[in-house]
Amino acid sequence: MLIRIVRMTFQPERTAEFLQIFRDSEALIRQQPGCRHVQLWQDADAPHVYCTYSHWDSAEALNAYRRSELFGRVWPATKALFAAPAQAFSVHPVDAASGLL
């Protein structure tokens, strides 16, 4: 499993637009092959900063989504609302007891 976290800082006056984009696309993202979970987080101290937290079967599944028509619509619309570049990273869960993925 691959976990993807994308931290996005929005122009404060444009957060409602982002939330509408997310509401309109959340279920469609969840339906993408290999997507197991999508969640939206809001920064506790900066209300115009959000993170998407998603689980994917693999990097290949995430990359297929990133090449999809859906992503091609959602990402440019979201990016237009940014106050700063997004920070994105992927991680794998680790069993701390064994040190294994």
TrEMBL record:
Protein's UniProt name: Antibiotic biosynthesis monooxygenase
Keywords: Monooxygenase, Oxidoreductase
Pfam family, one: ABM
Domain ABM: 2-92
Organism domain of life: Bacteria
GO molecular function: monooxygenase activity
Annotated organism of origin: Hymenobacter persicinus
